[in-house]
Structure formats: C-alpha cells, structure tokens
Design goal:
Arc Repressor Mutant, subunit A, about 65% helix, Four Helix Bundle (Hemerythrin (Met), subunit A), 2 domains, mainly alpha, single chain, 11 helices, two-stranded antiparallel ribbon, about 240 residues
Length: about 240
C-alpha cells in the first residue's frame, strides 16, 4: 500500500519525512519512481502544502529524493545507502548550526512578517537621513543576483536598525541569522529563487523605500507585509507546475 497516515505535531515536516523515508525503505517506492504530487501528499497526511514541501526538501538534503522543479520529486536513493552528496549540500552542512535546522523556514517567515512589518512602520517615523540613505543603498545593491542574498539581508537589517527600537532590531537580526543558517531555507533558494524572483523582490523593496521616505508608517507597514507574504507564496508554488 502507498497510503500514508495523517500526522499532528509542532514539527510536522520531520514526521512526514520519516513516513516517506519508511515507505521508500519498505520498497513501496523504488529508486527512480516519482512520489505523489504535493497536493496528494498534503491530502493523505492532512497537512498544509508548506509542511509537505519542507519534508521533501529535507529528504533531498539527505540524498533520498531528487527535486526536479517542473516535474516533481523522484526517489534517488535507499535509506542506509551512502548519501548522494552534492557540493552545495556539503558546503551548507559545514557552515550550518544544527539548532537552526530544527526550525521551519515557513515559521521563520511568518515570524518575520510579524516583526518586520512593524520595524518598517517605525523606520518611517524614526529613520534619520543617513539611515534612509543606507536603506536606499542596500536596495540598489540587489541589481546583481550574485550578491542578492547579502543585499537583501542588508536591506532588512538597515530598516530594523532605523526603527529606533534596539530590542526589535536584535530580534530581527536573530531571525535572519537563523534563516541564513537554515539548510532547508537555502535549498528553497536553490530551487525556486531565480533572477526573475530577485527582480520582483527589488521592486517590492523599492515600494518600501518610497513609503519610508514619505514618512508614512501605515504605507511602509503594508509594503513590507506585501513583500514578505509574496516571498512566502513564491516558496509554496507547486513543484510540478513550474
């Protein structure tokens, strides 16, 4: 049988990944076979698509499945066999703290939405001219995809620092460090973030910059919410519909 049991836990993706792993080990899915679609898996497990996506990416990091954006997810290896290691995975593992990978990338994003919308609103009120100039500078750096991740981090950090609330800025900095060290989050970027996505993000950043420059806190809050919620949505697009 290729049916899965529904699950309920604060860390759903780990339990989902383990069930899929067990099915592969039992021979229900052979090497080279495509797994059910994200939608079908979400229905079987009775969980959200985001939890399924996290589980599949976690299995890819283990070398058990291969994510082919536009086609689906295929069994690449059997549990217990030596992992199929890639340079990207090896580099991420070496530079990542274990604790950061216990967290769901989607939970990190939802928490950023809670905090960064308010930091943008506060920046619209408290940012100095120098801080506004730094925010604009960080936004402009996203023109090159090669440094987009660091420019993105620098942009959001500059807004947090301009909020005038050191505790809020420290909390946002901590969230960013967790995100930057999270292997699953990094793999999402590998698969689903391309030049077109960065171009959209740059446009969204520009709207935030304009709102902060106009000293309009509600507009800045909504522009930041729009940006972060779009990031969330871009990460849950069906792998088979790219």
């Amino acid at each position: 049988m290729k049916k899965f049991e529904s699950v309920a836990s604060t860390r759903l993706y780990r339990l989902i990944a383990q069930q899929i792993k067990d099915k592969i080990q039992a021979g229900d899915f052979s090497v080279g076979e495509r797994l059910p679609s994200e939608r079908d898996l979400a229905d079987q497990f009775e969980v959200s698509r985001s939890s399924i996506r996290e589980a599949l990416i976690a299995l890819e990091i283990e070398g058990l499945v291969e994510v082919r954006v536009g086609s689906g997810v295929f069994v690449a290896n059997q549990p217990g066999n030596p992992p199929i290691q890639t340079p990207a995975r090896a580099e991420a593992t070496d530079s990542t703290e274990v604790g950061s990978n216990d967290l769901s990338p989607f939970e990190l994003l939802r928490t950023r939405i809670l905090l960064e919308t308010e930091s943008a609103a506060l920046a619209a009120v408290h940012a100095t001219e120098e801080q506004q100039a730094h925010i604009r500078e960080m936004c402009a750096l996203m023109d090159s995809q090669a440094n987009s991740v660091q420019a993105d981090y620098g942009f959001h950090r500059a807004i947090a620092l301009a909020s005038g609330n050191e505790a809020l800025a420290a909390a946002i900095e901590y969230l960013w460090q967790l995100s930057l060290r999270n292997i699953i989050f990094a793999r999402f970027d590998d698969h689903f973030v391309d030049r077109g996505v960065w171009r959209l993000a740059k446009q969204e950043h520009e709207q935030i910059v304009k709102a902060i420059g106009r000293r309009h806190p509600q507009e800045a809050r909504e522009a930041m919410r729009h940006h972060l919620e779009h990031i969330y949505q871009r990460l849950v697009i069906d792998m088979q519909s790219q």
